[in-house]
Amino acid sequence: MSLDETVSSPAKAGAQTIARDHSGPGSAAGNEVRNDWTREEIAALFDLPFDDLVFQAATIHRANHTPGQVQLSTLLSIKTGGCPEDCGYCNQSAGAKSGLKAEKLLDVRTVLQSAAQAKDRGSSRFCMGAAWRNPKDRDMPAIIEMVQGVRQMGMETCMTLGMLTEKQSQMLAEAGLDYYNHNIDTSPEHYEKVITTRTFGDRLETLENVRNSRINVCSGGIIGMGETREDRVGFVHALATLPRHPESVPVNALVPVKGTVLGDMLADTPLAKIDDIEFVRTIAVARITMPASMVRLSAGRESMSESTQALCFLAGANSIFTGDKLLTTGNAGDDADETLFAKLGLVPMEAEPREIQLEAAE
Ligand code: SF4
């Protein structure tokens, strides 16, 4: 992969006019969800003066969501390490030399105990992640029991298990799964510099299977993987032009882990940490182009200042992962989040069962 410049180019004269000309759908004035965004429009949003961009994003956020409410999710690794995929950012890839030990699928009871603890700490959604290329049919009964058990606790359920067949999607839908996470990761152009064991098209196929099963889609990506501004435009464009926007859009900042391809490549370079302003710009553009989606401030929060996180919330992020751990890397932690929420006057959002969301969308 190339280590291209990641920091924004200066705002271009005229960019503001171009973006503001689209003052109807998807912009500060409107709530209409558009799926016909062009790359030029999205690039123009990125190029806006920072204040204008954040103001526009905050206005759209307030028109579509309750300000000050943040949805809290907890993520548990239900099957850690030994993954046959070669995602360059991931320490769970069998090829990574991060010292992470591969484990078996956790038993259902252990998973449900973790879910109960997460609920006690205020989480409304419990996300379960397995380091698989795809689930095997023999794994499905345990997976289904986990979904059903977490749902019975009154929490929303989310799973991320790799690629899914139509049949597996259907089985998960019937078990009551609320969300399926499958990130597109980055732009179509940058994708093969990060992952070679599956294609961008494979990702889209699984997203389509999930969507056709009427499970809510959670799909986003990672910023700071050596991509260019153009790639970030392409990343948002790929999501914002899906036939229906993902209900949840996680935007991660790369956590460079030693022993992973990207961790080693970016370590000790200026690209080891994404520029905070550029990260906030990406959140803001995601909010403007996908006004009804939940934009989740995901991995990388533990190394972000409170001020940067506050700017992300202002720019439209309205979901976070709580707890000390995200699968296998560190997270901000419940105490830090409580302090931050108190300082900013933010409150946790209540869970919404899937049936209600689907009815509301029709
Ligand atoms: S990101 Fe997921 S699919 Fe990729 S190596 Fe890690 S666990 Fe496997």
Describe the structure.
With 362 residues, the chain is an alpha/beta fold. It has 14 helices and twelve strands. The protein has helices at residues 15-21, 39-47, 50-64, 108-120, 140-152, 166-175, 188-194, 200-212, 229-240, 261-266, 276-289, 306-314, 334-344, 354-361; strands at residues 69-79, 125-130, 156-160, 179-181, 216-218, 221-223, 248-253, 294-297, 319-321, 325-326, 329-330, 347-348. Strands 1, 2, 3, 4, 5, 6, 7, 8, 9 and 12 form a ten-stranded parallel beta sheet that branches. It has a two-stranded antiparallel sheet with strand order 10-11. Strand 2, helix 5 (140-152) and strand 3 (156-160) form a beta-alpha-beta unit. The longest helix is centred in the N-terminal third of the chain and has 15 residues, at 50-64. It is globular. The N and C termini lie far apart (43 Å). Residues 1-29 and 356-362 have low confidence and may be disordered. The structure holds iron/sulfur cluster (SF4). Iron/sulfur cluster is lined by residues 83, 85, 87, 90, 92-93, 131, 162.
